[in-house]
Each structure stands twice: as C-alpha cells, then as structure tokens.
TrEMBL record:
It is an enzyme of class 3 (hydrolase). Keywords: ATP-binding, Helicase, Hydrolase, Nucleotide-binding, Nucleus, Ribosome biogenesis, RNA-binding. InterPro entries: DEAD/DEAH_box_helicase_dom, DEAD_box_RNA_helicase, Helicase_ATP-bd, Helicase_C-like, P-loop_NTPase, RNA_helicase_DEAD_Q_motif. PROSITE patterns: HELICASE_ATP_BIND_1, HELICASE_CTER, Q_MOTIF. One of its GO terms (molecular function) is ATP binding. The lineage of its organism: Eukaryota, Fungi, Dikarya, Ascomycota, Pezizomycotina. Its main location: nucleus. Belongs to the DEAD box helicase family. DDX56/DBP9 subfamily. It is found in: Nucleus. ATP-binding RNA helicase involved in the biogenesis of 60S ribosomal subunits and is required for the normal formation of 25S and 5.8S rRNAs. This is RNA helicase.
Amino acid sequence: MKRKLDANDVPSTDATGGENEAQITFESLPLDPRLRQALVKENFSKPTLVQSKAIPLALEGKDILARAKTGSGKTAAYVLPVLQSILQRKSNDLSLKETSALILVPTRELSEQVQRVIVSFSSFCGKAVRSVNLTQKVSDSVQRAMLADVPDIIISTPARVVSNVNNSALSLDHLRQLVIDEADLVLSYGYEDDINALAKAVPRGVQTFLMSATLTSEVDTLKGLFCRNPVILKLTEAEDEGGGISQFAVRCAEDEKFLLTYVIFKLQLVKGKCIIFVGDIDRCYRLKLFLEQFGIKSCVLNSELPANSRIHVVQEFNKGVYDIIIAADDQEVLGTKKIKKTAAVKNADSNEVDDDAEAEIEESSDDEVQPDESASTSNKKQKLSGKQKDYGISRGIDFQNVACVLNFDLPTTSKSYTHRIGRTGRAGKTGMALSFVVPKEEYGKHKPTSYPTAKHDEAVLSKIIKRQGKLGHEVRPYHFEMKQVESFRYRMTDALRAVTRLAIQEARAREIRQELIKSEKLRRHFEENPDELRHLRHDGEIRAVRIQPHLKHVPDYLMPSKGKQGLMAEDSQRHGVGIGKTSENRIRKARERNRGKGRRGAVGKKADPLKNFNAKGRKK
Ligand SMILES: Nc1ncnc2c1ncn2[C@@H]1O[C@H](COP(=O)(O)OP(=O)(O)OP(=O)(O)O)[C@@H](O)[C@H]1O
C-alpha cells in the first residue's frame, strides 16, 4: 500500500557537519565484531562525516535522508546498519530466511559496486549474509534460482525489482530496510512508474535510507513516498565540495590542450591516477589515440560502451592496470544548444534556492545515459534533462585513489564541475583538479580539434569560481612556461596529424566489435557462423593510426635545463603540480637510459630525424 506521509506532520531534524561534535569512532558504535573486522581489513580507521552522523541514527531505527558530497562515504553509511540489523536478527535465529533489505540504485554499474561493498563488509560473516544483484547478466532461470534461495539483501535498479515482484520470483513481504542510493537520479533515469509500483509493494514501517549528493524535488517526491519522519542530514564539511582539492585553471588554446596533456603525462608532471574529462565520445578516442602515439596508455569510458565494459574499465582503472581514464561526459554533446535561464530549483526541505540552477546549457542530443533496459517503456522515452545529463556517466562511480581530475574540455555548468572534481579527494584524501579553459579570442582558431562548448568556457569558469568561492575554495590560475613547452609542439602536431577522423571512427567501431566478440548473447551465433567471428577479429586488427615509434621517448634536448620545474612559470612552481622527487628521478633515469641507448645503438642524435630537424630549425 502507498504510504504517502506529510513530512510536515512531525518536524524533521536538520544536522550539519559544521558542529563540533564528540568524535565518533567505529569502536564506539554498537557494531558486530565481524563488521569491525571487515572495517579493519578495508582500512576504514575512522568514520567519515556522513557515516558518523547517519550510522548511530540508523542503528536506532530512524529513517535517514542524507545529502553529502560525492565520495563522502555514503555507501558504508547505509551498508553497515543494514548488515548490522541482519546479523542481529540472525544471532537469535541463524536459520532465518527472509529478504529484509532492498537497495535501489539507478544503474547496473552502481548495483555491481554496491554489491562489492556488501561482499567485502560481510566477508567475515560466512553464510549469515547473502546478497543478490538483480542487474547481473544471468538467465531468468538462474536469477529465479538465486531468488528462490531467499537472499537477505537485494541490490537492483527499480525496474528489475518490479518485474521480479510481478512474476512472483521475489517477495517484499518481509522487507525491513529500503535504501535508495543516488536518490536524486533514480526518478530522472526513467523509473517513475517502477518507483510508484514499489511504493505500493513495500510494507508499512520499513526503515528507509535516501542517500543523495543533492536535494532536489525528486528526492522530496521519494521522501513523500517512502519515509516516515526522516532525520535529514544536510552535510557540509569544511572540506566539502571541492575542499581538500587544489583547483587550477589553465588558459590555453584548443591545440595547446593536446600539447599540455602530452607534456603533463609524458613527463609525469602529475603523479598518480588521473581522470581526464572530455566533451564527447570522439574526443575520447582522439585523445586516447593521441596519447598512444607517445606510448601513454589510457582507457576510455563513455555511454556508448555496454554496461559490462564500463564496469570492467572502472575495475581495471581501480586495480591500477591503467593510470589514465578518459571519460566522455557525452551527455554534454550539443545537438542544438542555447543558454537558458532555468527557474530556480527549490531545495527539498526549505525555501533555499539551489544556485546551480542558474544559467545552464540546454541540450538536445541523442546520446543518453542508458538506465536499466527494462525501465518502463514510457519512461525510457523520457529524455534526461540537461541538468541531469550533465554528469551521468561518472556520477556515483567509485574511481579509487584518483590524484588528479583533468578537465580537458570544461563542463558546461558549475555543478557538473563540482561532480567531476568530486572524483578526486575522496574520503578525506587530497587531490588536484586542473581545467583547460579556452579564452574567447582563441576559440575556433584550430578548427579540426575545436570543441563547440569551448566558446562558453570563460562564462562557465566565472560561475565555477563564484560557486567554489562561496564554499571557501579558490580556483587558481596556473601558468606553464610556454616557451619551454613549445619545444614539444612539433611532436604534438605530428601525433595529432596521425589521429585522423577515420582513425577515430575505426577506434570507436573497434571497441564495439570487441564487445560483440565478447557478448554472451552472440556466442551461439558465432559458434554457428565462425566466419563472421573471424571477420570481426580480423577487422579488429586493422590499425588506422600511423605508427611513429620515435614519438615514444623524449629526447634530452627537449627537456628544459632546470628539469621539469622549468616547464612551469615561476608563480606556479610553488603550487608544485604533482612534482616530486620521485618523478624527477624517473625523468633523470629515463634521460640516462636514452643516453645509454644513443651510445649503444643507432638511435643517436644524428639518427633521430626529429633531432636533426630541430637542431637546424631551432635555437637550442
Ligand atoms: N571511513 C572510511 N575510511 C576510509 N575510506 C573510506 C571510508 N568511507 C568510505 N571510504 C572510501 O571512500 C570512497 C568513496 O566512498 P563511497 O563510494 O561510499 O562515496 P559516496 O558518498 O557514495 O560517493 P558517490 O556519491 O560518488 O557515490 C570509497 O573508495 C570507499 O571505500
């Protein structure tokens, strides 16, 4: 039955993180020893703000509506109370079999991610906790069998739950806890009908958690549908939304974006893992192929890749197989675009005005983030609004240990910027955000590579600066010593020239072909038609990019005499963008290796045509 409650019946509690509360530790929380063991294994030494506020209240059985920034640890804030409650009930009756917790998320990726967190936190619980992710790709009969075993926890998109409830494979009769993670996205991803159906199916009295990075009218709707007098946690940490992250903006022309990216990664000016955000899918592959020319490995993430591959890419990045991930916020691709003034969005619980709702670029594009394919058809047709599209692909995904976010193409809104930079500096760690900003006068000068939204960069940057300023954070200008960097231009141009439109299309198609080859669904078809598989494999081997082995190393004469520091203008050197002794040493060693090669083999100065060219063409 529907449990529409009027939130005004009983006043909600509003907590902020600014208060100087007694420090809560995990030891001080009444958690099962098996969960404590898992916390140690996971290196969770102290709770994050949202955890220290939400867990004690949740353990008391309160409904929670928590807004906390991306990366603030919201997952454990509900997973621990959910596990605790299951273990507590089972301590009285180990044979208890009931599905008592339902966790709803908007996408398959998030389902997988949440299940991984549950598995690691219940790793010392033996068979006491069993969870099933309904979005995994298994046959209906396998899924039915898993559900017949009555798992304790279901993680799913709303659509999958509804279809399993409708065909009686899943019963929600014994549900005790309901979590809606990324609550602000769930409705906008086209699950409205499913959510309404669930509101009727969920029993009265279930403890509800609504976790969200922003409080929107969608969250308010969910609160009305599922919550009883929730405790509302609006958490703003001192280091919230961009705190702990050093933010820099580099004004540069379109082609300089490529030049600087080459220099930054080839000379390892940035240490650690990096997410590069670009404006669309083609840019993803252009940059990937460009970096490949210099022997710099990266992987791509975009909405064109099937969900399975996206999950795989993030896992590989998290495992350290790749240090660079190039993510296309392809929701930002503009078919027709215009700047519109949107009506101010009212916050869910007050008359506060969300100042993100200022000027936004209205988008009309065919690229959509794909929610669960089984979302109600009518809703599936519903396009995501510009605001929701803005940070669809990476939102909520836990990219681990990201040292730097590079906005190769600036996003179109300050809110999207906040979400992008939230991929670094997670769980109290520090991070760096570097954004390329194309000045108005530079826009359009470099046609083949110009990105259409770049003409708004300066306007967007002022909004970003304003928003970050309100939060007490500074976006500082960063200057490279362009005279030094220029010496790398010839190589940059050479590499960029090799990355033709055809090469990009080929790389894009190749990625999809690989997915076809890997597809479970097509396996039988390929078994029956081996020639087709052979053709696909063969096509995959064609390489449309000219190989230029000489680009893979950096000749000595290109390095400034002062080392890498010489690439940064003096006012920016003190910010020390990732420069450390270790990488300086790496460069020194690389130079020594190069020198060694020159002596040993034929790759000496004279044998390198680029060096000869430069030696004549430039003053050294
Ligand atoms: N108490 C803690 N100690 C150490 N690491 C933590 C702690 N809490 C969370 N983390 C780590 O911080 C990262 C971010 O956590 P999580 O994904 O739960 O954030 P989130 O708030 O859900 O972010 P998003 O809104 O992007 O989904 C994860 O890698 C997680 O393992």
